[in-house]
Amino acid sequence: MNFLTVFTQPQLLMLVGLGTFAGVYVGAIPGLSVTMAVSILISFTFSWDVYPAISLMIGIYMGGVYGGSRTAILLNIPGAPSAIATALDGYPMAKRGEAGTAIGVTTVMSFIGGFIGIGVLAVAAPVVSDFALKFQPRDYMLLAILGILLVGSLSQGSLLKGIFAGALGIAIGAVGRDPLTFTERFTFDFRLLEGGISFIAVMIGMFGVSEALLQLHHVDKDAVRQKINRIVPSLSTVKKHLPLSLQTSTIGVIIGALPGTGGDIAALMAYDHAKRVTKDPEREFGDGAMEGLIAPETANNSAVGGAFIPMMTLGIPGDAVTAIMIGALFIHGLNPGPMLMIDQPDMFWFIVGALVMANIFMVIFGLTGIKLFTKIVEMPRSVLIPLIMLLSIVGAYAVNNSITDVYWMLGFGVFGYFMRHYGYPLGPVILGVILSRLLDDNWRRAIISEREDLGRFFEGIFTSPLSLVLFIAVILIFVSQTPLWTRGKRMLLGRKSESTSK
Amino acid sequence: MKRFVFGALSALALTSTAALAEYPEKEIQGIIQWGAGGSTDTVMRSVTPHAEAALGGTVVMQNMTGGVGAIALNHVVGEDADGYTLLMGAENPMLYKIMGLGDKDYNDFTPISILARGTPMLVANPDAPYNTYAELMDYIKANPGEVRFGATGPGGLPSVVTAMINTIEGDLDVISVPYDGDGPALTALQGGAIDVMPAVLGAAIEGVRAGKMKPLAVFDVERNEKLPDAPVVTEFNAAFETYLPWGPFFGVFVKNGTPDDVIAKLQAAYAEGAKHPDFVELMDNRGFTMMGISGAEADAFLSKWQQGTAWLLQDAGLAKNSPEEFGIARP
């Protein structure tokens, strides 16, 4: 019954729409995050009733997760960490004059992913949250290692350079007071380094500023003309990629439902999965492959539904945004926790309804105004480059209202420029920063829990089915990237595979 | 040009005297020491709109996290003492000095309001083979080095509660697993990654009501009306009365040197805001004890809290620097 509340009350409908619209644009601007927008909304909607307040927040959340892809595709600056993987193939498409197609595919795929996430939330929330709770520190650690192995698929070209970039990212992530013991690490007694290096500043600098600097090389070249005849992908395209989008959405829901991980890791893992399972893409990954766009976008939007799963069933936030929404529910006099679904089932169905509505609005706002947006890429470089710089500076400042972050952003921008110039991939740096804490904290928790005994640690891995599966996945993925594996594979199936490929 | 500068300066002088007369004449910044969605954040975001109404001004709240809240505290210390930057924090700064986290604490600030106090409690995974505090103590003695306690870093509530238990019961042989906060630790408790967690009652109450965790003891001298069936720790061991009641607290502060009339206005506004029925109900639901104190009463509360806790940690060997170095007297 309450599922329909949002559809039947024009006021709520309008608020979801307004939220989604605002979310798309907040999400598109790097540095302005959905987390920030939702926490501002708490004060803003303080005196409202709980339904309108939640409607607006859900709209912003759904729209914002999608909006991050906009600037990733058009300018190579991910609007949010969850859009990093989108930039890898989305931007090359824009450079070929296919920005319209890229945005169209992204929108439709985000919509599909969003629905799968909401579907799982509506149907299987208790089952998924029980599963998510089973993850022990060692499992989070194995998941982080699995993530680190993505360096292989994110480094276009030299693996060695990719490993260097990934290690650099992990080191950047370790700067500052260690969150478990508050000991200073890599701070060299600079007060400035005590709080760590803002990861968003690193991301904006590495992608945005380095892009602006790189474009200076071609400042006299004409901008790419954008083809905008085909924006909405055809049914056959959607159908063709349906199996992949189902798989990547599943990844999104699960990673989203885990209390320690969110859409950013989900999108990167989905990208890696797509690269692994796509046998012969129409275009190479990193060169504008459709699959490289579909995977992260379905995953990060299905992670939204996923993040609500532990929130609604247990009162445990699935990510930063749901953490704030739990706070909002408290302020509005509800008691989010394991009893919420029992005491107030109507709240659950209302949220599912609002998510469905936000997802529909997202596709509407996403598919309109594309023509206008693609014009951005067609702007002359003398306008585009300053625009990228401006956006980067405003974005970096907005994260913490800190000018220091702007300096970091500019510094990493120049560094990123030289990295790109010498063929070092940037994806692994960001990957390293994202995973640094997940890996570090959980390794320490895991080994402390076993009284710092490696024997007991491995015993734990081999006696838990979940840990064992993750451990085997790590080993398999690792081995499959070594030359030994390729040689062994050739020796075993050598003739057969060669004959089929010829 | 000269005349313009002069004019601008005199205008500035005029407005700044006017500011003293009619505070607040611009937006006030509220710096929240902890992240969005946490306890401190929820408390501050729910009391401030009521205080704003009483004050007739706007308070723009911003979360500034990092360094156990020290980043936010140092930020506010660096701003002017004009009442336009408020620090919204929890108890942690009172332990910065002895924990080596900084050289500033609430002694550099004037309390506007100590809003409320929390009550700690010990909760366990429902499958744990002990049901009360006494059974837990016996179990730990019978199985040394097996029970995993959740922790939130030096100076956090779990470390203080664990220090109390160690001081009274003798050193416990348990494993202490660090988490980012009580939220993630209580999640880990439900998943079985840790066995026991000292947490603030408000954070654990919904889990206890749903049977996802079981209460072993409430760390107070009287039973809590929110959980009347949960025994208090003094029922098991009267020695805890020396340290209890103890608990984390939330407060709003301004830097020392802020004009007295501004302080008086802010104190009146937050005292009014804290009385609002919506806020009282929210705090009650989360099991917090309302305090709403300011002035000399708040100063006395802060220094007593600091003495007791600092020396407790020092005696348990957890402090990095002795409280003596900072002139914190033994209670």
UniProtKB/TrEMBL annotation, chain B:
Keywords: Signal. Residues 1-21 form the signal peptide. Gene3D superfamilies: Bordetella uptake gene, domain 1, Periplasmic binding protein-like II. It holds the Pfam family TctC. SUPFAM superfamilies: Periplasmic binding protein-like II (SSF53850). Belongs to the UPF0065 (bug) family. This is Tripartite-type tricarboxylate transporter, receptor component TctC. The lineage of its organism: Bacteria, Pseudomonadati, Pseudomonadota, Alphaproteobacteria, Rhodobacterales.
